[in-house]
Amino acid sequence: MINDLIADSLTRIRNAAMRRLDVTTLLHSNAVEAVVAILAEKGYVDSFNVVEDGNKKTINVVLKYDDKGRTVINEMKRVSKPGRRVYRGKDEIKRFKNGYGTIIVSTSKGVLPNDKAFELGVGGEVLCTVW
């Protein structure tokens, strides 16, 4: 049994990118789906779709590579973990890696990237960072 589905999903994406795979499969949860949607919106992954097999759901993620065959994701880190939750206010999540990276935050308005959370004026639990 996996306790932290977000960390498992980030690790699966990282491992698939290191092996230069085209598609990887993630276990489904609403939080994981929201994180993958943000990754697709920001251009870190090509696309994704939710596959329903009976009562079990999975997410197929199509990875994205540049013209030299390198992954567009330099680093993915899980920040807030089940053993140590990390919360930030709206002023502390304004920018990451000088605007080149993205902080994914779970807020009262849903799971948002750092720029949208700053626009809405909300902070929350920092799920992960990507650049």
Measured distance between first and last alpha carbons: 29 Å
How many separate helices? 3
Mean pLDDT: 93
Oligomer: single chain
CATH level-3 fold name = Dna Ligase, domain 1
Largest sheet geometry: 5 strands, antiparallel
Q: Which CATH first-tier class would you pick?
A: Alpha Beta
Instruction: Based on the coordinates given, report the CATH architecture.
Output: 2-Layer Sandwich
Radius of gyration: 15 Å
Number of self-contained structural domains: 1
Give a description of the structure.
It is a single chain. The chain has 131 residues and is α+β, with helices and mostly antiparallel strands. The protein has a single domain, classed as 2-Layer Sandwich (Dna Ligase, domain 1). 26% of the residues lie in helices and 34% in strands. The protein has 3 helices and 8 strands, in the order H-E-H-E-E-E-E-E-E-H-E. It has helices spanning 5-18, 30-42, 114-120; strands at 23-27, 45-53, 56-63, 76-78, 87-88, 102-107, 110-113, 124-130. The strands form 2 sheets. Strands 4, 5, 6, 7 and 8 form a 5-stranded antiparallel sheet that branches. A hairpin with a 2-residue loop joins strand 2 and strand 3. The radius of gyration is 15 Å and the shape is globular. The relative contact order is 0.18. The model has no long low-confidence stretch (mean pLDDT 93).
Summary tags:
131 residues; Dna Ligase, domain 1; 3-stranded antiparallel sheet; globular
